[in-house]
Amino acid sequence: MTTGRFTLPSEENFAAETARIGELWGADAIRNADGTHLDEDVLKLGKKVYSAYFPTRGHNEFISKHMEQTPQIYLLSQRVLAEADSVSIPYMQRFYSEQLQANQDADPKKYWEVIDRTTGEVVDPGNWDVDFTLQVVKISGAQPMHEYTVTFLAYIIWDPVEMYNHLTNDWGDKEHEIPFDIRNPETHQFVMDTFRKWLKDNPQTDVVRFTTFFYQFTLVFDEKHREKIVDWFGYAATVSPEALAEFEKAKGYPIRPEDFVNDGTYNSTFCIPSKAQLDWIDFVSDFVHENVKTMVKDTHDAGKEAMMFLGDQWLGTEPYRDGFEKLGLDAVVGSIGDGTTTRMISDIPGVKYTEGRFLPYFFPDTFYEGNDPSIEALDNWRKARRAILRSPIARMGYGGYLSLAAKFPKFVDTVTDIANEFRDIHEQTDSEPAQGILNVAIVNAWGKMRSWQAFTVAHALPNKYNHSYYGILEALSGMRVNVRFISFEDVLSDGIASDIDVLINAGPYNTAFTGGDVWNDGRLVSIIRS
To answer: Residue 360, preceding bond cis, omega within 30 degrees?
Structure first.
C-alpha cells in the first residue's frame, strides 16, 4: 500500500472512521462536501485541508433582503395555439415555482418578447399585456391557428445545485439557499468582503476549493422537480437588465431575448453558435475573469492555494478559452465520468496540477441497502485509467458523505485497490504520459475552447442524440495519438498544420459539430481537400 495523491471527503463527528478509511485509501488530504463541515477532531488528523467555498450562495440573511439581485434567466413559455384573435399564454406553466420566479421589477415591454412562432414575427408590445397575478400574457390581434410564445425574464430563487442536493438527499425543511449575482455593486461588495473575512476565520484551510464562482450552467427544473433544461455549457442564467445594458455598451448592439432561448434550444452546444452568442460568452467571460483574479489574489495573499471545481457555477471560466491561464489558479478539480472527462480535466493548461473526483458520489441514490457501489467504482476507474496513461491527472478523490460509503466494506476495499493502482501508475511512469504516434485534429465550430467537450451535453451522462459520436472522443482519450481541437475559422484563417495526420469532423448534419452552412464556403472545402 502507498500513500498520497488522494483527497478524502469527510464530515463532522466522523474522525475515527475518517482516520481508518484515510489510511486504507492512502489519503493525504481531506475535504468537506456540500452540506457538511470538518470539525476539530477531523482537522487534527494532520492532513492537508480543502475547504469548499461557494462565493454566491449560503448567505440568505443578506440576499433575502435584496431578491432583485439574484441571478436571472430568459425562459421560453410553452407554445400556445390561438383559436381566435386573442390568446393568453400561462408563462410559468411547466416551470418549478420554488426555483424560478418571473421578474416583475423590470419593464416586460422592454425586456420580454412575444413571438408568432408560425411566422417567426415579433408581436408588437402594444398588442400584449402581462397579468402578474394570473401569470399570463394576454395577446390581442392574434392570427387564429398560429402558435405564440413569450420569452420572459425570471429570477433564480433557489441555487440549482443546492436544490439538486437537497432533493436527492431529502433534506426536508432545510432552508433553500438563494443565489446572488455579483454584477450588482452592493452584492459584489458583500461577496468580496465576506470572502476576505472567511479567509481570516479559516486559518486551517490549505486549499480553497471554489465551487465554483458566479454563474450556474443552464439547469432548470419542471413543476414535478425533474430536470427540464440541462446544458452544461448554457449561458442562459447569466442575464440581467444591468448585463444587457453593459453588453450593448461594450459590443455596440443590443442582444435580444430570442438570442438566449433560440426557439427553445437555449443555444445548446449542438447549435451552430451565432455572433450574438459568441459575443455574449466573451462578455460574460471578461467580467468573470476580472473578479476571479481578485479572489485568487486574496487567496494567495492569505497563504492558501486556489482550486476551481470544473462544474456548478463554472460559466465564464472555460479552461480552454484564451485568458484562463492568466487567472492564477493553482489547480482544477473536476468530476471523472469516463476517459473523455478525464482528458477534459488533465489537459487543462495554465495550472500547477489537476485532480479528478471519481464516481460514485457518496449520496443515497447510490449508497442504499441492496446496491453494490463497487460496480460503478470499477467501471468508472476502467474508463478513466486508459486516459490517465495518456494524460495523467495528478490527484484523485471522491465526494459526498463518507459515513455512507463506510457502510459498504466491499466498496471501501475496491477504492483501496483503485487508489493504490492510481499511485502505481504515477510511480511506474514517473507521471509522464505515453507518447502519441499520430496527430489527430477534431474540427468543429467551437475549436480549442471546447477541447474534449465537443459532444458533451450533461457532464459525462449518455445522451441518445450524441451517444455514437461521443464514442469517438472516448476512443481517442486513451489511444496513443495526440489530439487537438480546431475550429472552422482556424482552418479558414491558418489552414491545416502540416503535422496533422488525421482530421475528424463528426456528428449530425447542421450542428456545431459538423458545421452546417460553413461548407458552402469553397475555400474551406479546397483547404481540406488539398
So the answer is: yes
pTM greater than 0.85: yes
Catalytic position from the list 34, 279, 312, 338: 312
What are the grid coordinates assigned to 110, written together? 422592454
pLDDT digits (tens, 9 = 90+) for 265-277: 999 999 999 999 9
Q: Per-residue pLDDT for 360 more than 90?
A: yes
Question: Does residue 335 sit in helix, strand or coil?
Answer: strand
- Give the tens place of pLDDT for each residue, 54-98: 999 999 999 999 999 999 999 999 999 999 999 999 999 999 999
Q: Residue 237 in contact with residue 216, Cβ under 8 Å?
A: yes
Please state, in angstroms and rounded to a whole number, the distance separating the CA atoms of residues 223 and 160. 14
What is the residue whose three cell numbers read 430536470? 227
* In the block, residue with C-alpha cell 478509511: 21
> Is residue 263's pLDDT more than 70?
yes
Torsion 367-368-372-376 (CA) sign = negative
Instruction: Supply angle C-alpha 13, 19, 20, rounded to 5.
Output: 110
Look at residues 85, 188, 88 and name the one whose alpha carbon lies nearest to residue 141.
85
Q: Average of pLDDT values for 173-191?
A: 95
- In this prediction, residue 169 has a pLDDT band, given cuts at 50, 70 and 90, of confident
Q: Residue 483 — pLDDT band, cuts 50, 70, 90?
A: very high
Cell triple for 99: 426555483
Report which of 145, 152, 80, 148 is spatially closest to residue 109, judged by C-alpha positions: 152
Residues of the chain by 3-state class (helix, strand, coil), percent to 5: 35, 20, 45
Q: Is 312 a catalytic residue?
A: yes
In sequence order, what are the beta bridge partners of 239? 72
Strand ranges, E, within 262-397: 305-309, 331-335, 353-357, 395-397
Q: Average pLDDT, whole number, for the chain? A: 95
Q: Within a 10 A sphere around the Cβ of 328, how many other Cβ atoms?
A: 15
Give the sign of the dihedral formed by CA 516, CA 517, CA 521, CA 522.
positive
Q: What pLDDT, in 10s, does the model give residues 290-327?
A: 999 999 999 999 999 999 999 999 999 999 999 999 99
Q: How confident is the model at residue 33 (pLDDT cuts 50, 70, 90)?
A: confident
Q: Amino acid identity of 341? A: T
Residue 247, φ and ψ in degrees, nearest 5: -60, -45
Q: Sheet harboring 86-90: ordered strands across? A: 86-90, 136-140, 128-131
CA dist 402 and 412 (Å) reads 10
User: Distance of alpha carbon 317 from its chain centroid, rounded?
Assistant: 10
Q: Helix or strand or coil: residue 508?
A: coil
CA trace torsion 468, 472, 477, 480 (10° rounding) = 140
Concatenate the DSSP letters of all residues of 447-499 into one string: GGGGTTTTT-SSTT---TTTHHHHHHHHHHTTSSSEEEEEEHHHHHHH---TT
Q: Give the model's pLDDT for residue 1.
A: 63
Phi-psi region of 405 (alpha: psi -120 to 50; beta: other; left: phi over 0): alpha
